Amino acid sequence: MKSNFKFYLFFLIIFSNICFGNTFNLGIQDYPDTNKKIDGTSINDIIIEIFEKELKLKLKIIKGEWKDSYQNLENGKIDALGLVSKPQENIFLTRPIFNENLYITSDTKCLESINNLNNQIIYSYRDDKESINKLQFFLDQNKISANIVLVEDPTKYRADYYLNSELTALKSKNKLLISYLGPVSIGIHKKYKDLIPKINNLLDEKYGDIIKNHIQTLSLHYQQENFNKTLTLEEREWLKNKKEFNIFLESNTTLSRFSKSRKKYIGLAPEYILLISQIMKTRINIISKDTKLEALKNLVNKNYDFLISSKHHNYSENFLISETIDYIPMYLLNNNQKKNITVGVVENASSHDLGKEYFSSNGIKLYSSSEKLQKAFLDGEVRYIITPYLGYDDILLEEFKEKKLKDISLNFIVRKDNSILLSILNKALDIIEEENRIKIRNSVERDRQILLYSYNKQVKKEFFIIFLTLLICGYLSFKIISQRKTATKLKHDQLTGLQNRFIFDKIMKSPHKNDHNIFIVIDLDNFKSANDTFGHQIGDLILIEVAKLLLDTFEKREIFRISGDEFYIHCSNKFILKKLNNIVANGQNSEILKQYNISFSIGYYEKAIDENFSVAFDKADKAMYAAKKISGFSFVKFQNKKGHQI
User: Fold this and answer.
1) What percent of the chain has pLDDT over 90?
2) In 10 A of CB 588, how many CB atoms?
3) Which among 50, 75, 88, 493 is least surrounded, fewest beta carbons within 10 Å?
4) Are the C-beta atoms of residues 264 and 274 closer than 8 Å to each other?
5) What pTM, to 2 d.p., does this model score?
6) CA 83 to chain CA mean position, Å
7) Can you give the pLDDT at residue 454?
8) Smallest Cα–Cα separation from 155: which of 214, 67, 82?
9) What angle do CA 84, 51, 222 make, to 5 degrees?
10) Residue pLDDT, tens place only, 94-125
11) Among 325-329, 336-340, 360-364, which stretch is predicted with the lowest mean pLDDT?
């Protein structure tokens, strides 16, 4: 009866609005960024369309600034308001339509690093206490001395440093990420709260993606505007006449790989090429028919316009080299079960140059490709290899990662007679923001996981054929293979690749290094809600993302997935605060965790020499529950005498 009553009430509201001309007061935030039209549509237009076209309401549009509009929604003067992040007693929210970060921005002042804020004034809206607290925490955490000045309208101080939300910060070239701000929804006054399920369905089926794409397009539009402003008249005319560019990329390397199933190039290099193409609004064709040496010759012969390579190579004599696109880490992998000390590298690649820098020439063995190098390493031909462990390397190599040797810069390479193209590329690179780089790296990692998953499916298929053959050959062979397979599964969690509870319990019973006295417990916040709401596939994606974040800071042998969304870490106390701050920062910047409103709470404990391991993890667990009472992405240390300390 109660559900039927709600249905009839909703029907009567809609019917009375249509038949009797009752107006629905829709609040619209009146800012340049919310009114900015892309392909004839602004974000305000999209919100109006939801209420007018889909809900068939007779609207009265009431424009205003955020503070006044929010107060009018609370006291019932308006019935709904686009882009609201905080519920109140009279304000109900739809499901989130996008997530926002908090930034410091400036139209004129430099913001290349956090140090630019030292001894500066930062203007903030006086009534936004949550954002002010996040800013103060950020400054304290990074030991930055800055004066926060509270004002009624921070946008009047655009020439200075001012606190800004993501949507209104899109246009600013100079901005610095402070913190995750929270989800943004459509606010509905409580008398119309029965509209929320209908609006949520519209957002799920159509308008959620429309708004998300609009914001992404708006961000790119501002980047294109800023890029165009930097060009000289000569450069603008030259680029206008240049209909397209040709670039060479290898089709099966760490930086770029052609995916036959998706019929496109994936990897770090193709992602940056796509973004540069969008910023310049000029097509870039990827060609991969040549070898690297042939590509250099074709660059000279003007068959290619530019290439991507490492500045580590000595190209400066014959070519012009751009500013850095990004950096890739070069790792030394060590198969310490092998007695030889030979190091394998790819001939005439960055690994070759680093091999000559760190090893004697007599101990270097050359290979013609990354695939042959990795196979030789796993087959035991060489003990060490140097590889840019970044893109699509075999997942089996992970356990051999020993030391990062150096970060290698990636650069565009152009002919010496084409300085105008070099200048244009450098200006396009300067437009790329750190958030673009984070999204590209996350996209590369997602592609890598998908590719490895497809490899694993193929491996499983081949294994099944081998399994049947072995079964025919005899029961004994089958039993041996089964035992090996079981032993492998017992060691690692099948989803994340991390060590599991079985191996954790086994390691805890064995002798440990004296310096491994830190015990860490990590538990995800809001994971069950996300898993129930979006399904187990999204839950799996979140767990894989968290495992990746932990592996960026800790060694794989130190990390265990214990159950569900709980992780244990057992490590030394060396740089422990730096490591904890690092995983918190990486978590806050993760696009996947932001999208599904996931954070994590961390408790840790420094064990005494004579203390039991289980007791130590129990204390870390108590500290973790104390962290949950603070906020997301917090860590707490358990102290025996002083109690919990942040």
Assistant:
1) 33
2) 17
3) 75
4) no
5) 0.61
6) 23
7) 63
8) 67
9) 55
10) 999 888 888 899 888 888 788 889 999 999 98
11) 336-340
